[in-house]
Amino acid sequence: MTENEPGLDPLKEDGRITSLNERLARAKSEEADRRGEGQQAGDRDYRMGNRVLAELIGGMVGGALIGWVLDRFLGTSPWLLLTLLALGIVSAFRNIIRISNQRSK
Predict the structure, then answer these.
(1) Cα(22)–Cα(89) distance, rounded to whole angstroms?
(2) Mean pLDDT, rounded, of the chain
(3) Does residue 10 have a cis bond before it (omega within 30 degrees)?
């Protein structure tokens, strides 16, 4: 019923508003790129992968190296090497599990 009644015509969209919205969206995306927010998730995952790899290698190498040195001094070859290597692997996996359970910021 109100469709047939005379009244004010709705305003047509102004081209300046459309242009302003486009420029605002472009400025927001440029600012996000400048801050590095566009690549943030990929960089965070890359850093987490490097940290996991460092934990794994560090645990194994550290345990093996300390075990080998103690075996040389104490003459218990290869038992301390094997024991500390196993402890290094266990601690590395414990740290990896802890890293993977952290909430992403």
Answers:
(1) 54
(2) 85
(3) no
Predicted TM-score (pTM) of this structure = 0.58
HEC string of 23-80 equals HHHHHHHHHHHHHCCCCHHHHHHHHHHHHHHHHHHHHHHHHHHHHHHHHHHHCCCCHH
Residue keyed to tokens 């992968």? 49
Contact 86, 63 (CB under 8 A): yes
Terminal CA-CA length for the chain: 55
Alpha-carbon distance of 84 to 68, in angstroms, equals: 9
Summarize pLDDT for 65-82 with one digit per residue, the tens: 999 999 999 998 899 999
Q: Which residue has the tokens 């590395």?
A: 92
